[in-house]
Protein: Coenzyme PQQ synthesis protein F
Organism: Pseudomonas shahriarae
Amino acid sequence: MPAPTHPRPHTETLANGLRVTLRHVPGLKRSAAALRVAAGSHDVPLAWPGLAHFLEHLLFLGTERFPASEGLMAYVQRHGGQVNASTRERTTDFFFELPRQSFSAGLERLSDMLAQPRMNPDDQLREREVLQAEFVAWSQDPTAQQQFALYEGLPADHPLRGFHAGNRDTLQVEQPEFQKALTDFHQQFYRTGQMTLSLVGPQSLEQLRELAETFAAALPAGDNVVQAAPPPLKVKSYQQVAERQCNLLFAFDALPDSSAQALAFLCHSLNSAKPGGLLAYLQQQGLADSLKAAPLYQFAGQALLHLALNTSSESLSSIGEQVRDWLSFFAQQDWTSLGEEYAAMLARQQHVSGALQRARLDSEQLETGLSATGVAALKHILGEIGTVDNFSAHWRLPTPNPFLRANEPVANAGLIRGQTSAHRGLRTFAQDRSRGRRERSPMHFSQALPDNGDQGAIYLRWQMEAAATAGLQAQLQRSLRETQDDARQAGVELSFSTTGNQWLLKLTGLQEPMPIVLEHALKCLTQVDADSARGEPETPLLPIRQLLKALPEQCSASVETSDNAQHLWTTSRWDGLALGLGAQTQSAMGLALSRIPGTPDTQIPAPSAINGQHLWRHIDTASSDHALLLFCPTASRDVADEAAWRLLAQLCQTPFYQRLRVELQLGYAVFSAVRQMHGQTGLLFGVQSPTFAPVELLRHIQQFIEALPSLIDATDLVQQRQNLADQFSDENLSTKDVAELLWQSRLAGHSSDYLPQLVSAIHSLERPALLAAAQRLNRAEGGWLCLASDSLLGAPWQATK
C-alpha cells in the first residue's frame, strides 16, 4: 500500500525546548495557532480533582499586562476570530484563529497568559462557581452520565474510572495546600519542554518561524516531564446496555506505534453505512438503527475503542456476534484500495479545511492515511480483538466514493459540438438562446466571487405550499445521509433544512465534484420512500442548544403541514444562487439543473418580519437548568441598519459576557452575537443558568441593553469601526463566509454590490447614528423574539407557536 502523499508541516524543536510545527498555506485568508500542553486531568494530584480544567479557565482571566478586557478572548472576539480551549485526560489545548494582520498580537497574548497568570483569589472564587454550574449541568445531563458510565467495565484503579470534573468541594481555593498544588502544576507542566505549538497561515515558513521564536521567548524554559504511566486496562472487551443503546468496548494495552492512525482507519470503515457493510446489515436485520465507532481514549500504548449502536432489538448478544463476524471479515481483506481512497479523502478534507482545523490536526502530530506501520498496527489490533478466519459470506467492502473519482474533462465552456477553441467568440443562435435562458434562470451565477479558485457554493431554495411534517423532515434528512457522507469525504459540505414552507439545499467546498453531488442529492430528495422514515433517536441536547436549534423555525411564518413529498415537490417554486464556480463547473451543472423539481421563480418573497412585536415561545427542554434566547432583528432591511447592528454586536460581545457570566455569575453558557436568518439580521443574546429563571435572565439582558448608550460613549469608535470593516475585506473572508453573506443579502433583497455597501456603511457610522440604533434596539422597533425554557410572561409578550 503506498504511503500517503499529504504535504507535511515543517517540524523542529527550538533552542528552549518548544516543539513547533509550521504549515505555509498560500490560499488561506487567516492564520491559526494551536498550543498543546502535555498535561491533563489525569496528571493532577489525587486530592484535587478538576485542578487542570480549573487552571485552563483561570488562564483566560487576564494578566498584569493584558487584563481580561484586553486579553486573548476579548482581542479575538473584537477582530472576528475564533478562540477556545479544552482539557482532556493527558493534554490541554489552547487554539485561536485571526486575520493575518492581527495574528502576532494574538500570539503575544497567548504566551503572556500561559506564562504570567495572575491567579487572583477573587477571580478563583468566581471561576469556581462557573465550574460548579458546569458540574451541576454535567451531573444532570443523561448523555454525559452515559459517557461516564462507559468506563465502569475497567479496573477500579485506572484513572478513567476517577472523578475529574471539579466542583465547589474539590476546588478548595481557600486552602494553602490547594494553592500550592495549583502553582506546582503550572510550574511543572506549563513550560516549553511540555508544549507543542502549531502555526498555520499564508505567511512564509520563515515568517511563521519568527512568530514561533517570539512566542517561545516569553515562556518558562524547561525539559520535558515524563507523564506517569497508567495502570494496565487488563480487560479485553465488555458490553453495556442502556436505553435503546448497546455499547461495545474493546480495550488495548501495549499497542505498537501508529496505532492511532490504524484505529482512525478502522473507525472510518466501521462507520460506513453502504450496502454490504456492518451497519447496512444490522439495519436490514432490524438489529440496529445507527452505528458510531470512535476511540474514547489513547495514551502510552493504551486505547479504548467504543462502538455505540442505537437499537430497539432485544437480541443484544446477536449484535456483538455480528460485529465480531464483520471484524473477522475485515481482517482478511486487502486494504490497498480502501487505504488509497482513505488517503484521498483525508487530502480532500485537509484541502478544504481552514487554518484552525489544520493547526489543531498538526498539534495532534498524527500521521495521515494508513502507512505500512499503520497496517501492521491494524493487524495487531484486530488480532487483539480476537478475529478468526471463518466469517459470513454476505459481507462486502464499501463501494468506492463516486465523488472522489477523477471526473472526465468537461468540454470547453462556450463551445458546442463541432466547434474548437478557434471558434471561441463566435456564437450561434442556439447558444444565444441558451445564454438568454440562463440569464433569466432563477439559478443566479453570481460574479461577486472570482471563479478562478477551486472552491465555490450553491444554494437552492424551494417555496412549498405547506411545511413538512416532522416525519417527512426525518425522511428527507435520512435519504441524504449516504450522499452527505460521500460528499463530505470529497470536500463538499452538503446540508438540507426545512424552515416553515421554505426548504434549502446548500453545497459549499470544492467546486469540482459539486455538479455530480448536486445530481445525487436531488435524486435522493425527490425519491424518498418508506425505508427513509426509519430514523435514529436524537442525542439529548443542552437546553441552550435546544433553543438554538428551534430558533430558525421561529423566525418564519407558521403554515399548514403536509407529509406528501411528491405533491409538495410538484407544486413548489424554486430559485438559487451559485458563487465562485468556473465555466467548466457551470457547464457540468446542466444535467443537475434540469432535474430540479418545481417551477422556476425569480420572485419568491422574503419571510415576513416581526416588527414591533414581542413574541415568546416556550420550549420544554426537560432539564432543571433554565435557558433563554433573545433575538432582536433590525428595524429595517436597510444596509445601514445592518451595519449599526453589527457594530453594536461587536461592542456587546465582551462586556455582555463579563457582566452576566463573570460579575453576576448568572450561568456558564453566556454569549451575544449577530445572527442572520432568512435575510433578517439580528442581535442574539443567550444564557443558560442552573439557578436563575428565564424572567430573571431576561431582566438582566434588558438592563444590559438599556445601558448600551454609556458603553457607546466610552468606546473608541474609530478603532471599532475599522476592526469590524476589516472582517469583511477580501483578505479575511473565506469563500464559504462570502457565500453565506451574499445568500443572506439576496434573501434580504439587496443588490449584488452588497458587501462594498456594507463596508461603506460601517465606515460611515458616527456616534449619534449608533446611539440612535441602540435606542431602536431598546424600543424593539424590529421586534423581539424570545425562546425560553419557561412559560409565557405577561404583556407586552405574546405567545408564538
